[in-house]
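Researcher: Here's my situation. A collaborator sent me these components and asked whether they could plausibly form a single complex. I don't have experimental data yet, so a predicted model of the whole assembly would be a useful starting point for our discussion.
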Amino acid sequence: MTATVAPEKDATRPGRSGRSEKKPASDRSTAENRLGLKLVAPAVVLMLLVTAWPMIQALYLSLFRYRLTAPDDRAFVGVDNYLTILSDDQFWKSTLTTLLIMVVTVAVELVIGFAFAMVMHRIVFARGLMRTSILIPYGIITVVSAFAWQFAFSLNNGFVNSWFNWLPFIADDTNWFGDYPHAMFAIMVSEIWKTTPFMALLLLAGLAQVSEDMLEAAKVDGATWTQRLTKVILPNMRAAIMVAVLFRALDAYRIFDNIFVMTKGAEGTQSISFLTYRQVIEQMQLGLGSAMSVLLFLSVLLLAWLIVKLFRVDLAQARGEG
Amino acid sequence: MAQQTGKTQVGTWIGFVLIMLWCLFPVAWIISLSFKSEGETGAGSAQFLPKEPTFDNYKAIIDNPDFTRALINSFGISLIATVLSVIFATLAAYAIARLEFTGKRLVLSLALAIAMFPVVALVGPLFDMWTTFGLFNTWPGLIIPYMSFTLPLAIWTLSAFFREIPWEMEQAAQVDGATSWQAFRKVIVPLAAPGVFTAAILTFFFAWNEFVLAISLTSTTSSRTVPAQMSFFVGPDPFNPPYAQLATASVIVTLPVIVIVLLFQRKIVAGLTSGAVKG
């Protein structure tokens, strides 16, 4: 999970403009080029070693019927694995579940995160205390968050039922892990609790960019609070919001830990990541599992592309090198 | 804000209380649960606070060799992955922030793509490769992928920091006859240390938290990390998980996180949002 967005390339950087004017073939720039490549090489090799290479292997394996428990049965089957998956109900159901989790959690986090960011931006006291506290859910292990909420929602040992039984849809004996809607709710609560602080911090950084002068001017011109929010604050932090949404959406789409701990995929709460894990590790279906891996990879690419296109996220800025 | 009205001040106060509750209440819940006795959770204990607080769970967890072993694995793997990842990222980020070379944008795009990579998609092929190379269920078997997945974050954070460094000093050193490499080592490294430290904290958090690879690429306690160990710790009765002991383990693995956050709060926030401020 990364939130770091390098600063946009600043043309005013000292030294840089002079350097690029240099003749391309000078000894100095050849040496610089060589040093640059040398310095990035180890990082690039490491990143590719564990991603590109296995992905190529997955692409290859996905064309075989290959089960680790029966290696001799391995046979080339072409795109059969893909057809099997794409015509499977479970695959589409878990894709829907994953998308549902993604849309709901990101939307809720955006609203709560924005409220948190507003409070943190305005507050004049205890800033350090609040930033320390908000980093605790961020830093906590997802598995721990999942356990904490699983126990909170537990039928016998949780406090949720006894504290909230005055709500119309919660009774003393509500079984939160007994059906799809309840289990999904519990999973989303854990996901939202852990990741909202991250969203809030990114939005806070965006909020700090909205010029106070502009807000002041809007106020003098008689803009209401809602007008100032929708016409001044939100448009001015569009870039920060979009980057936060992109990162969080792709992160939520990969949801695994919470589901593994809280429901083990029961009641139809399997996410696409969980289904893939199950094929590969539990069923040892390396061929079929690899095909799912490829599909998962492609769907993340598609999703990233869609978000960038739909919301016109300025990746040139996010990339830091326009 | 200079002229806050009374109404918004009340709102800010309410917001403050809500944020504190949001962040700390679930932590208080697992701490409270960790002091409940096994008998109490076995019989069903719906109230928040323990009836008779006991340290038994802490004794049981610390005496549990599987858990202490997992703690050692977690610390060892996370620390080694952090140190190595930050070293490689520092080299790469320096080149990206300072040097002109072909393929620079490619490296940054690659890092961005890998940060968004669905880790589960690698589980199958990595499992296959690691068994072939004898890396399955070993420390390096987890350290290597952890490095790969933390490099993007570290490279981004560090290159953002490196852009803020007064580079005239590097040029001054070069004018005085230092080579690019000497300028890097003698001038930039001391200046960049705070940024490197921030990247290290974020990297450590990632490795400490990682779960998918930890359960897929290990099979015994010899290399299983705490999150993986906890998820397999079901106790004798699968229908009645050892709530109190799991809560205790949760509290113990959360302690390092809280210590790091308390000590380095400013650096972490700066690292997480570096660049987003300007983007």
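Model: Some features of this prediction you could bring to your collaborator: The first strand of chain A starts at residue 64 and ends at 67. Residues 18-64+66-76 of chain A form one domain.
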